[in-house]
Amino acid sequence: MSFPGITHPLRPSRAAAAAGTPAWPTFTGTATLVGTSGSGVTVYVDEALGAQGLQDAQSLLSSADGVVAQNNSIFAVTGGPVDVVVYALGGATDGTGGADHGGCDFTTGNAIEVDASFGSPNREVALFEAELSECAMNGSLCGYSTGEALSRWCAAVVSSNALSDFATAPAWAQAGMPNWVDQTEQTDQDAVSTGCGMAFISWLLSQGKHLPQIAQAMVGLGDSGTLAALYAQLTADSASNAWSKFQAAVAALPGGVTSDDPFNGFSQAMPSGT
Predict the structure, then answer these.
(1) What does residue 97 show for φ and ψ, rounded to 5 degrees?
(2) How far apart are CA 210 and CA 195, in angstroms?
(3) What are 36-58's pLDDT values in tens digits?
(4) DSSP the chain
(5) CA distance 51 to 152
(6) Contact call for residues 80 and 106 (beta carbons, < 8 A)
(7) pLDDT given at position 16
(8) Inter-residue contact 125 to 162 (CB < 8 Å)
(9) Alpha-carbon torsion 159, 160, 166, 170, what sign?
(10) Is the dihedral angle over the CA atoms 252, 256, 260, 261 positive or is it negative?
């Protein structure tokens, strides 16, 4: 990919994995079992990472049930068991290697890889949630610009925005703000279309919509759904008004688009009490 970010390539499951061994999308090293959380998250670590890697994996294991609970709340689902391996994805140990999984539900995508992030446990939480949220999309959106934006927003909310350096909305602004509201890019690897989605969701959040409403509506709309259709469903306004109203809101921003949350919707993402 051409920009730092979370990777979600779609791959068929690997049937040739040894019995009892997770079918990791890319990891080929020796994984050490760290433990299994109460909600069914089994965490492994690449033994080559040594003590720091083990500490990262133990921290992720201790956070796993909280991540699962928040993810279930966002999507109104009961997730399935997943396996997670912590390793130097792409050779990085600061989280910038991103994360990966093989499919878009809890059956084909339940083998999750996250980059080690020495000393920054919230970054691993964010990477884990980015993949877990795509499993909760149940075959929809994953691999599309809309699904990528949604997964990144889920990761931001669950981790207190631990991956702010992964921001893509500024790339959309710098590209001239093309219209990815009325159409959806059929890839999750394009910063510009993903960035439009990030800014659009920020705008919806600032209008009093919550992330669970947004997530569940997007999953219901499916792969063919657009951000304009999402706007229409959540506001009862015409989808044809979404782009022009969003443009006007962006134009009125005093500082422009300099982050993935230009409308400061983060604090309103989850309903009070959750």
Answers:
(1) -75, -10
(2) 19
(3) 999 999 999 999 999 999 999 99
(4) --SS----------TTSPTTS---SS--SPEEEEEE-TTSEEEEEEGGGHHHHHHHHHHHHHHHHHHHHHHHHHHT-----EEEEEE-GGG-SBSTT-EEESSSSTTTS-EEEEE-BTT-HHHHHHHHHHHHHHHHTTTSSTTSHHHHHHHHHHHHHHTTSTTGGG--HHHHHHTT----SSS--S-S--HHHHHHHHHHHHHHHHTT--HHHHHHHHHHH-TT--HHHHHHHHHSS-GGGHHHHHHHHHHT-SS-S-SS-TT--GGGSS-TT-
(5) 29
(6) yes
(7) 35
(8) yes
(9) positive
(10) negative
- 3: pLDDT strictly greater than 50: no
Supply the pTM of this predicted model: 0.92
- pLDDT per residue as tens digits for the range 115-154: 999 999 999 999 999 999 999 998 999 999 999 999 999 9
> If you count them, how many residues does the chain have?
274
Neighbours of 252 (CB within 10 A): 7
Q: What is the pLDDT of residue 245?
A: 98
